[in-house]
């Protein structure tokens, strides 16, 4: 599995896998399949051009991705948000999510970030274990953070202090 940064040239594969993720796991993302499928591939290319995303490739097939959205205002430029983690189940259990997260954290460190935040849907124990093993710590749970088909889901807010971890 090759882990590398994604760019606008990866937009078609990224968009297809993202739509799959949104359709198969609507409770895991704030975005929705219904909204995103109406967006052209150019919107995906723009996202990949303006934010740092990593992809997990095997041969020419994209099997996973994760993104980093950095803050730009002076008072919070030291932090970024981890977004959109997804790994296709057919490559599950191979450490792909961990490798994607490691690439993201290494990039964050090299670029002077000191703080990473993310949210994970309550009940997604696998994702919570992954983030905890990477040093992320929960700092609160937001009840009713999103609603999918009228059902409320809580989001666990997690933080990684890059200034204190190796």
From TrEMBL:
Organism of origin is: Ramlibacter pallidus
CDD domains for the chain: NAT_SF
Record protein name field: GNAT family N-acetyltransferase
Pfam family for this entry, one: Acetyltransf_1
> Which InterPro entries did the record assign?
Acyl_CoA_acyltransferase (IPR016181), Bact_Acetyltransf (IPR050832), GNAT_dom (IPR000182)
Q: Where is the N-acetyltransferase domain?
A: 1-158
Highest taxon of source: Bacteria
Which keywords does this Swiss-Prot/TrEMBL entry list? Answer: Acyltransferase, Transferase
């Amino acid at each position: 599995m090759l882990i590398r940064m994604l760019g606008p040239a990866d937009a078609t594969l990224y968009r297809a896998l993202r739509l799959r993720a949104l359709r198969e796991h609507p409770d895991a993302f704030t975005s929705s399949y219904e909204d995103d499928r109406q967006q052209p591939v150019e919107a995906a290319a723009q996202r990949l051009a303006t934010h740092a995303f990593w992809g997990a490739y095997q041969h020419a097939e994209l099997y996973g991705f994760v993104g980093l959205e950095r803050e730009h205002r002076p008072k919070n430029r030291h932090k970024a948000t981890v977004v959109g983690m997804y790994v296709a189940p057919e490559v599950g259990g191979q450490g792909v999510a961990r490798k994607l997260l490691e690439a993201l954290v290494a990039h964050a460190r090299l670029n002077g970030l000191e703080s990473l935040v993310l949210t994970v849907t309550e009940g997604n124990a696998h994702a919570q274990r992954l983030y905890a093993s990477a040093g992320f710590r929960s700092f609160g749970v937001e009840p009713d953070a999103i609603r999918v088909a009228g059902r409320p889901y809580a989001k666990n807010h997690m933080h990684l202090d890059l200034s204190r971890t190796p």
